[in-house]
Amino acid sequence: MARSKAAERSEPRAHDGALPFADLEAELVGLLGSGDEGAIDMVDAALGQAVLHRASDVHLEPWADCVALRYRIDGILHEVAHLPHEHLRQITGRIKVLARMLTYEKDVPQDGRIDPERTPCRKAMRVCSFPTVYGEKTVIRVLDADPSLFAVDALGFRAGVVEALRDLIGRPQGTLLLTGPASSGKTTTIYALLKEILGARAPSAHVVTIEDPVEYRLGRVSQTEVKPHSGFTFEAALRAVLRQDPEVIVLGEIRDPETARVAIQAGLTGHLVISTIHSGAAAGVFTRLLDMGVEPFLVASSVTGVLAQRLVRRNCPHCGAPYAPDPELRARFGLAETESAFRRGAGCEACQGIGYLGRTAIGEILAVDDTIADLVLSHARTQAIHEAAVRDGMVPLAADAAQRVREGATTIEEVKRVVPVPNSPPPDLTAADSDMGNSEPGIQNPKSKIQNPSSGFSLVELMVALFVFTVGMLGTVQLYHFGLDKIRTMREAALATQAVQNEVEVLRALPFAELTDRVDAPFVSAPDLCGPLVNLTPSLTVCPHADGALRLKQVTASIRWTGDNGRTMERAVTTLIADKAGKGTPGPRPAGPREAASP
Asked: What is the DSSP letter of 185?
């Protein structure tokens, strides 16, 4: 029995390979004019060539005189063909059929997904259409689920960044945030971290992801897509999934204050939260969270690390050759003229004359310690947090990028395109492993000289100076311990407040019958609280009505604990609840300060 044309088209077809850009337009235009199914063949060929050219996105843009086909390769758009405008309707219709979109809707944006088995290239794709004055513009994202990409070691980060990431995801709780512009590799990094977590915690890992949309489907992970038009937002999904007590929560993006607050609180209560947020640098994430209204003590206690990353194009290994970069630009990035020869791809058949082939990741990882936490609590500026992190050992993005230029992996022009030019030259990572005792030219090393008492100071002057120094040191130590005690108290209060807020959220979600049983339990675990837990007791306030029903008015959760400083402290959270009622009388209540309202 002869097979149908649709069945033949669904099978992989042999292809000679990636066509040069100069020949691609003639090939696609010829397919469009080949017959009734010309648009189908043209779309299949365009998508297949995109995969062969390693394109991450395919753009079909209607212009005034033509339809432009552009491939995004290594982050840069390249025009590959100009197609006749009269074929736009057939081309767009074919793509919508593959993506299961509404073909008759042309005036509103639409989103769809092409399954791997529906195209000859066997790749999953995400489709987005957008109306313009010249017709519908379509952008197709190629979801290349290459298993080799989902490995932390294969992303291209420095060894120090990889080691810090593994330390952060190995912790039982906390919030790890990734930041960077669009198409900077954040999603790939998250999936690589998930693969690492699954390998380390198998087979008992309970991992949930909340994405918009799900780009890559993982086998052992509960993945869900948000649907804002149905009310299923990031915040709603996160609140719902917290009731299932997952170990690891991946949140696609923190976009609004409500989602930020819930995500940060989840990182304090026994969950490892991984998410993304838009900011220019790692230190700027803290300022962004504070601007969203998240309390400083929550940010300082929950966020364990921030990774700022970018993707830079790598020189083509087949046509790389030495070249002389711009001297002024070289000096801005701290690259000396006497260093080894800089390299740049000249352009060849392998890279389609671009000079670059593939990309690699660069990043700065900011691990939150006591110094960074103190700065966050004091609402310090972004620059102050950045400088403190650099003093603690963080390698800035510009320094990491400059090191790739020294190694010949990329060019300084590519670094300028991706990373802002620094105001001052970044530190040389090559010199970081050298003897740190050698001071820079023109800077006196304070350890290289010791003041000689015989250089003109009298004995009395030296004794007075020693006395003043001792008194000053004692006062500094006193202030230091006072500050530490205050910070510990603030963090304990933050943990206590979070514990009772979580208990209140649990109580609010319970039916009335279960709620009256729940309050009989006098103790609720709060293992993250500093010091021994004394009591965490929920209580209810109800109002009986004439029909015999009890209508719940409010829920209160209170906690008392002994802090590191030995003082007993207490926190209480009360929330009002409306329209929750049950028949009969509530069960017995534990002894404690409970208040019964009058009828």
From this structure: S
